[in-house]
Amino acid sequence: MQSTSKNLKDKIALALDFSREEEVIAFLSQLNPKPKVLKIGLELTSSVGILCALELVNQLCPESEIFLDLKLHDIPNTISKSVEALSNLKYKIKFLTLHSLGGSKMLEEALNASKNSLNIVAVTVLTSHSNESIQKDFPRITDFTLPAFSSDLVRMAYQAGVRWFVSSANEARMLKKQFSEIKLITPGIRLKKIDNDDQSRVMTPVEALKAGSDLLVIGRPIYKAENPQLEWNNLIHSLN
Ligand code: C5P
């Protein structure tokens, strides 16, 4: 696969998994070029609030697109009101995550409430899960495999109208084959096959893109690096 560093950079969502504003400022101010997509998640929103997080990122990187990773999961009525409120904010949100386990009605309500102003992204199975962890936590579920379950979740959400999904890159090839029109966002990316932290199912950026990922979520390999700028440079040039 041929790809330039520019378009590889555009396929990365950098996760801002910080709990203090100062950490976000220190990280983003030093980073060049700025990431095309920035992921704001539960860590930052729980500590500074959604509006402050959006304002902060918008000020530091006004050109970057916002991926709001709230992984919402609630009854359809509550989700509808929440998504409507988020779509009406003055900050433009490009992606918003919900758990597909919330079911087809919840996803349909989310899509209706988004009025196409943001992309509803359905999370399949968290990349921190493995077949073993599911079997240990839910011993009564006997016929479980991650690929089959991911595929069932995507089928249900696809029928509800969702086109963007979060999955492990391990399932990307299979899901793209089964559902050619979907777009896949894949966390659990490691620059080298080394320490996996709490991620059970990991791939390198090149492997994940080859498997069909449309957007790679990368957090700790960059922000926890000894020299984040150096790792960022290495990453965005890694396909040259
Ligand atoms: O640090 P790391 O590169 O593992 O970043 C993982 C990021 O991706 C975190 O922000 C986490 O919330 C998110 N994520 C995930 N697995 C999913 C969905 C999102 O790890 N299935």
Summarize the structure.
This protein is an alpha/beta fold and 240 residues long. It contains twelve helices and eight strands.
Main features:
240 residues, alpha/beta, 12 helices, 8 strands, globular, disordered N terminus, binds cytidine-5'-monophosphate
- Radius of gyration (CA) equals 17 Å
Which series of helices and strands comes N to C? Answer: HEHEHHEHEHEHHEHEHEHH
What is the arithmetic mean of pLDDT?
A: 92
Strand content: 15-25%
Multimerization state: single chain
Class from secondary-structure proportions: alpha/beta
In the predicted model, the low-confidence regions spanning at least 5 consecutive residues are: 1-5
Total helices: the number is 12
Distance between the termini: 10 Å
* Helicity range: 40-55%
Topology:
Layout: H1 5-9, E1 12-15, H2 21-30, E2 37-40, H3 42-48, H4 50-60, E3 65-72, H5 76-87, E4 95-99, H6 104-114, E5 119-123, H7 131-137, H8 146-160, E6 164-166, H9 172-178, E7 183-186, H10 205-211, E8 215-218, H11 220-223, H12 228-236
Parallel strand pairs: 1-2, 1-8, 2-3, 3-4, 4-5, 5-6, 6-7, 7-8
The structure holds cytidine-5'-monophosphate.
The site of cytidine-5'-monophosphate (C5P) has 17 residues, from β8 and α11.
Would you kindly provide a written description of the structure presented here, covering whatever features stand out?
The longest helix is centred in the middle third of the chain and has 15 residues, at 146-160. An eight-stranded parallel beta barrel has the order 1-2-3-4-5-6-7-8, surrounded by four helices. The protein is of the alpha/beta class and 240 residues long. Helix content is 44%, strand content 15%. The chain has helices spanning 5-9, 21-30, 42-48, 50-60, 76-87, 104-114, 131-137, 146-160, 172-178, 205-211, 220-223, 228-236, and strands spanning 12-15, 37-40, 65-72, 95-99, 119-123, 164-166, 183-186, 215-218. It has twelve helices and eight strands. Helix 9 (172-178) links the parallel strand 6 (164-166) and strand 7. The protein is globular, with a radius of gyration of 17 Å. Helix 5 (76-87) runs parallel beside helix 6 (104-114). The structure holds cytidine-5'-monophosphate. Cytidine-5'-monophosphate (C5P) binds at residues 15, 17, 41, 69, 123, 126-127, 166, 187-188, 197, 199, 217-221.
